[in-house]
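Appendix B, example 12.
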Amino acid sequence: MQPQNNDSSYEKDQMKEALVWLEQFQAQLVAKPNLTPAQIAADLDLLFTNPELLQLSFSALVKRLIESPIWQEFDYDNNPYKALCLQLSKAIEAYNQALQAEPAYHSRSHFKEVCLGITLLVAQQNSPIPINASNPWHLSAEDAWLLLFSAIGHDFGHTGMMNAVPFEIEKKSIEQIHLWLRLQNLSSDFIDELMTKVQTIILATDPMYLNALLKIIQSTSPPPTKLNYLSMLMVEADLLASALPARGVVLTEALAKEWQAHYPDKAQILINPDGRLKFLQHIAFLGPHAQRLGLNSNRIELIEQLQKSKPISS
């Protein structure tokens, strides 16, 4: 397994630099509201491939994100999530460090990207015009921290295998989080209330559930619940990097590598010319946070580009 640099002084210096880049990205969105989806996507590609960021350990990234202005804006009195997020990231770091080898895709690199993804989405709540409380997508401070906690643990213990039955791997990650919480100095009532929400959000990340979730979010009768909206935001964070023009291609190759040993046919489908096109057609970004990042518009543009580049069959 490729070790990540764990030198604390190195990480402090490098993360400081990386967060400046993150803050600059957010500042540019505000200063230049007419950026096209393609321009935003190109900047996101740079953000997700920042060399200094890629060298950081998972828990170091979580620590610096928590300390960043984006998350400080959502802090509140007696917030239990700050400590829990950092402690859970350290537990997952230790778990993955003990593996003989991490999965090619579902590794700490992916965990970092999802935490960065949820941070980028949450950051759009108040910038430049607030998504106000009357909007069903509005995030309370606790909603935002719940999403970060879920992002940190959503693939805890992932083996790189595919679900044999619906939600199989997601349930195992939920169980890992639940077991970890029980080792903390927390009341059973707090754990039960937290896990009820976390379970719903993490179960939604099963790729085969996406179509059902999209229908729920787009339904008016009955309307989606708050947990449905939070689940969609979690899924958007999970997919964000994979939907980018350059980073997405690299991640597709990583997932194909992960599947090669056990699912060679599916791995081949991924790297076929139509593989990425079908992926982009399958997903969607529906929320206003994602809209402010131009994610769905960019997805549509990428689909059109791929369709134009397809060879004409005889």
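The mean pLDDT is 93. The radius of gyration is 19 Å.
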